């Protein structure tokens, strides 16, 4: 799998296609059936198909979570990197290349879609997203207490997207080709949770 942009998201990681039979399983879930009944009862002029298509369309939007953000979140809080905040030892006019040991980043997300027909009802549809990235040979360029660039190495990833115990996306462990350098612009401040 090749990812060639600094704006990589989980949608790029999982791919935009959902299996029709998987969506049928989700549609048959009791909570979705209850929602359909509520829509039909409370607002008969609103077609269920339009509501379902809207829910389905929003699933991809839930996956617009940045891969770069997933990677940098643990790095910016990594105690070993906090020393680069010391401007006396690490002057802000100099850049420092910091190699990272092989490591695994696991990230979980629990977004939800809320279907609301005020004031009649409001129903939440929960999602569970888990991603695991195994990184080897990565280095960071740090300047003025900020991670400015990521020099990538080997990356493998796997993940799962579920809604009410129905698997919508599943990615087995596979190699991911990232750009050789990911420029973080103004940078990401180290130590600022």
Quick overview:
This protein has 5 helices and 9 strands, in the order H-H-H-H-H-E-E-E-E-E-E-E-E-E. It is of the alpha+beta class and 193 residues long. The strands form 2 sheets. Strands 2, 3, 4, 7 and 8 form a 5-stranded antiparallel sheet that branches. It has a 4-stranded antiparallel sheet with strand order 1-5-6-9, covered by helices on one side.
Explain what this protein looks like in three dimensions:
26% of the residues lie in helices and 38% in strands. The chain has 5 helices and 9 strands; from the N terminus they run H-H-H-H-H-E-E-E-E-E-E-E-E-E. It starts with 9 loop residues before the first helix and ends with a strand. Strands 2, 3, 4, 7 and 8 form a 5-stranded antiparallel sheet that branches. It has a 4-stranded antiparallel sheet with strand order 1-5-6-9, with helices on one face. The protein is elongated. By secondary structure, the protein is an alpha+beta fold.
Name the poorly predicted regions. 1-5
H-E order: HHHHHEEEEEEEEE
- Roughly what is the average pLDDT, rounded to an integer? 87
Proportion of residues in β-strands: 35-45%
Number of helix segments?
5
Report the end-to-end length measured between terminal Cα atoms: 31 Å
Please tell me the total number of domains.
1
Strand count: 9
């Amino acid at each position: 799998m090749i990812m060639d942009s600094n704006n990589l998201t989980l949608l790029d990681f999982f791919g935009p296609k959902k299996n029709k039979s998987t969506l049928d399983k989700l549609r048959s879930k009791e909570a979705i059936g209850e929602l359909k009944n509520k829509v039909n009862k409370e607002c008969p002029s609103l077609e269920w198909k339009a509501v379902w298509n809207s829910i389905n369309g929003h699933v991809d939007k839930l996956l617009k979570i940045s891969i770069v953000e997933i990677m940098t979140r643990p790095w910016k809080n990594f105690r070993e990197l906090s020393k680069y905040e010391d401007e006396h030892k690490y002057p802000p006019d100099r850049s420092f290349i910091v190699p990272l040991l092989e490591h695994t980043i696991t990230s979980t997300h629990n977004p939800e879609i809320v279907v609301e027909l005020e004031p009649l009802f409001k129903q939440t549809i929960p999602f569970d997203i888990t991603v695991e990235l195994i990184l080897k040979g990565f280095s960071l360029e740090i300047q003025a207490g900020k991670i400015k660039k990521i020099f990538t190495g080997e990356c493998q990833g796997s993940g799962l997207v579920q809604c009410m115990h129905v698997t919508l996306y599943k990615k087995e462990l596979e190699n991911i080709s990232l750009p050789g350098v990911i420029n973080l612009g103004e940078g990401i401040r180290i130590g600022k949770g």
